[in-house]
């Protein structure tokens, strides 16, 4: 809740036409985040805005959020999903930015604030701009065409895309056009193409996920040394995923490996050394989306149109399978879900306390059926799912049928609530969100944005660090804090103090002090469990059997040298993060599209002699029979915790 209070004080909330007009009358410069009710404001830039406000301390600079659904002046923004920022001065629109491009937004704010101060101090006219989202049909016909660099990129929602970069070394040697011809001959479609020289700041921001690598400064210098060609690629076949196809076409990042294993790849043909490897490709679809927004902030995705022309967009909804059906028929329900075109974006099995049930169903507490609902919801693990597809909320509710079980059986016997009704049980066994807004609130309840501590251990640093970091980013985690360090014996003993006195303790401490390790704070919905699952079981032999794609199955050599470490629960994560990094901001939450701006690393880190007083916790670095099993309930009862024990922990 603290994060929301800070955001409210930073950004004024504008939700109707009267407030909009009052905002326009504000003296100075106002940066407005225009959003749709179903997706909410762009939280990915809140830390940036706070940083700008704190550094400038300027009373002429204001921030606001504006809900397009309820403001007449923003009618043309309704139905759009890309982040949009309107900058007003003296009631006039002076700049527009689409996409969460933090460096560009910061530069625009500073430039426009400087211009507005000149206007207020010395008079003169403001340079007013128009935006397609605010002009009427007649004005649209008269609107000037966008310049090449302001091209609006439209990517059909059914088509995948990737960002490709032809790097400065290849451009300098006159090979760019040759590569572009090969790209087209290979069947790739070029949706956008721009020649651009990155500034040092842009290169640093674009490659911020590589900031911990030894070559980072050289990479930034190289990528800002001359013009690159930036391309957005797709494929003609709507079902094809262009990302792996493009990565296969360009070959491995290591030139020697590319020449040896993929001699026909672009990197084998045009690369000369690790940094000068000719071309870049997005790691996955999420990274492609972020990179597209970085280079082409005016991009948008085309909507799916129904027969009547009305637009639909991919959305999420919460589905709950209550304990009795989750025990007996979960696979049948999941089959119905998949066969109906839903994808399961998030999934977890949780045991709810009575207090959590009261919080989640607060509007039903006074109903006659609430005691039966309470009994049902606390009788065992509930399977919670975040489902995604176009029109997800309404589609799932249609599949569920009436909430009254008897009515469902009479009026729609084929609906899920009728099919999976229990004899002599008045409570239906499946839940669905009632609206877009309720869906996001409910998803946040069951899948709260969390942070967890991840450690790449010394035994994995030399050979596997880069691959592990790549997989962390490609799995949707945001790295909000990162440091590479060599632990002293005292720090390692304190870090693993819950194992002091156990037979393996000295070996574990010695291993962790043997060389550098990397400490990371990872942020994501359900981050603790997601990272635990990604690592796999503690014992690599067991991991190879039960989770062959996990990090430990692939990179660990034995139970001591098991590559990675992670917190066992949210409280454990907070305590270890505090020990390693000191006090850091925990308020930032990811944007609705999953992106988070990485925060600047805190300088307040634990010293070698830091002693953190805390209760004994579990640790997942040792075999299951070496540590105690127990609940992983957090002290925060506002969001449910998993009911599974911790024996296969991080």
Helix-strand blueprint:
Elements: H1 2-10, E1 11-14, H2 17-24, E2 29-35, H3 46-56, E3 61-67, E4 84-89, E5 92-98, H4 102-122, H5 137-142, E6 154-156, E7 162-166, H6 168-172, H7 176-185, E8 188-196, H8 200-206, H9 216-223, E9 228-235, H10 242-250, H11 255-261, H12 266-270, E10 279-281, H13 285-295, E11 300-302, E12 304-305, E13 311-312, E14 314-321, H14 323-328, H15 330-339, E15 343-350, H16 354-360, H17 370-377, E16 382-390, H18 392-400, H19 405-411, H20 416-419, E17 430-432, H21 436-446, E18 449-456, H22 458-474, E19 478-485, H23 489-495, H24 505-512, E20 517-525, H25 527-535, H26 540-546, H27 551-555, E21 564-566, H28 570-581
Parallel strand pairs: 1-3, 2-3, 6-11
Antiparallel strand pairs: 2-4, 4-5, 7-9, 7-10, 8-9, 12-13, 14-16, 14-17, 15-16, 18-20, 18-21, 19-20
């Amino acid at each position: 809740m603290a994060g929301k209070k800070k955001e409210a004080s930073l950004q004024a909330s504008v939700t109707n036409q009267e407030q909009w007009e009052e905002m326009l009358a504000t003296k100075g410069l106002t940066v407005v985040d225009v959003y749709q009710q179903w997706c909410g404001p762009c939280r990915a830039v809140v830390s940036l805005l706070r940083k700008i406000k704190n550094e400038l301390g300027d009373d002429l600079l204001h921030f606001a959020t504006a809900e397009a659904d309820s403001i007449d002046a923003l009618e043309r923004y309704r139905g759009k999903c890309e982040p949009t920022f309107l900058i007003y001065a003296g009631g006039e629109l002076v700049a527009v930015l689409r996409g969460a491009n933090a460096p560009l937004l910061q530069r625009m704010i500073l430039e426009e604030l400087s211009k507005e101060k000149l206007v207020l101090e010395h008079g003169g006219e403001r340079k007013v701009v128009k935006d397609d989202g605010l002009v009427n049909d007649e004005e649209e016909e008269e609107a000037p065409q966008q310049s090449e660099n302001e091209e609006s990129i439209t990517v059909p929602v059914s088509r995948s895309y990737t960002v490709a970069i032809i790097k400065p070394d290849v451009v300098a040697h006159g090979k760019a056009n040759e590569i572009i011809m090969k790209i087209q001959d290979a069947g790739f479609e070029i949706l956008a193409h721009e020649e651009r020289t990155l500034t040092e700041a842009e290169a640093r921001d674009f490659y911020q996920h590589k900031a911990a690598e030894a070559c980072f400064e050289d990479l930034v210098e190289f990528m800002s040394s001359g013009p690159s060609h930036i391309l957005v690629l797709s494929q003609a076949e709507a079902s094809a995923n262009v990302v792996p196809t493009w990565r296969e076409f360009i070959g491995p990042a290591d030139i020697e490996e590319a020449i040896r294993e993929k001699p026909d790849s672009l990197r084998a043909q045009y690369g000369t050394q690790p940094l000068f490897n000719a071309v870049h490709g997005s790691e996955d679809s999420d990274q492609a989306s972020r990179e597209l927004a970085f280079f082409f902030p005016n991009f948008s995705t085309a909507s799916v149109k129904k027969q009547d022309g009305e637009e639909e967009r991919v959305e999420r909804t919460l589905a709950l399978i209550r304990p009795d059906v989750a025990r007996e028929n979960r696979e049948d329900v999941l089959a119905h879900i998949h066969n109906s075109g839903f994808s399961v974006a998030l999934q977890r099995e949780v045991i709810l306390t009575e207090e959590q049930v009261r919080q989640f169903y607060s509007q039903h507490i006074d109903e006659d059926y609430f005691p039966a609902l309470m009994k049902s919801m606390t009788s065992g693990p509930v399977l919670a799912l975040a489902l995604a597809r176009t029109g997800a909320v309404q589609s799932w509710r249609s599949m569920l049928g009436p909430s009254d079980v008897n009515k469902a059986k009479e009026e729609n016997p084929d609906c899920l609530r009728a099919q999976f009704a229990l004899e002599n049980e008045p409570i239906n066994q499946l839940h669905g969100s009632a609206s877009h807004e309720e869906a996001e609130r409910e998803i946040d309840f069951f899948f709260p944005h969390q942070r967890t501590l991840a450690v790449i251990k010394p035994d994995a640093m030399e050979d596997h660090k880069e691959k592990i970091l790549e997989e962390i980013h490609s799995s949707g985690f945001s790295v909000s804090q990162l440091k590479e360090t060599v632990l002293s014996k005292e720090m390692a003993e304190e870090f693993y103090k819950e194992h002091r006195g156990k037979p393996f303790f000295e070996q574990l401490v010695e291993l962790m002090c043997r060389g550098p390790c990397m400490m990371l704070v990872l942020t994501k919905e359900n981050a603790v469990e997601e990272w635990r699952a990604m690592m796999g079981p503690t014992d690599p032999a067991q991991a190879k059997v039960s989770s062959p794609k996990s990090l430990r199955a692939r990179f660990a050599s034995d139970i001591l040298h098991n590559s990675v470490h992670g917190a066992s629960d949210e409280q454990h994560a907070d305590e270890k993060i505090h020990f390693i990094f000191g006090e850091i901001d925990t308020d930032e939450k990811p944007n609705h599209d999953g992106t988070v701006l990485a925060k600047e690393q805190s300088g307040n880190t634990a010293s070698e002699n830091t002693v953190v007083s805390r209760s004994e916790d579990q640790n997942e670095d040792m075999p299951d029979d070496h540590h105690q099993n127990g609940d992983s309930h957090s002290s925060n009862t506002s969001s449910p915790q998993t009911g599974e024990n911790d024996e296969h922990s991080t």
